[in-house]
Amino acid sequence: MNLSQIRLLVEDFHRSVAFYRDVLELPLGFSSEEMLFASFHTGETKIEIFSRQNIAEVIGEYNLPSGKQPHSKFLLAFSVDDIDERYTVLKDKGAVFLSEPHDRKAWNARVAHLRDPDGNVIELYRHPL
């Protein structure tokens, strides 16, 4: 597994993109208004901005009580060669998954999500599909 991205899960996508692009002057590699997603190239590991509400739907945090916000603020994304194999190995070791491996056609990737012991979200992905 290789750490590929640190994904910040933000409330205000446009304000966050403007901060990283205009204030920190990080080079914007890709941005999608439709997915509320942006990627900044910072060397080997990218920093990505992603709507907290959008990722909440993917990892199952969308059925929260009224007034509650998704609590995930960042996500570590690891590139793996075989999502299904890594899923099985980690599950056998006791990892608690939020989602089984599945294809995300809009992302052109196969992904699975789990939490670490403190509740931080980890994404395993294989790109492209």
UniProtKB/TrEMBL annotation:
GO terms for biological process: L-methylmalonyl-CoA metabolic process. GO terms for molecular function: metal ion binding; methylmalonyl-CoA epimerase activity. Keywords: Metal-binding. CDD domains: VOC_like (cd07264). It comes from the Bacteria. Residues 2-127 form the VOC domain. This is VOC domain-containing protein. It comes from Paenibacillus nasutitermitis. The lineage of its organism: Bacteria, Bacillati, Bacillota, Bacilli, Bacillales.
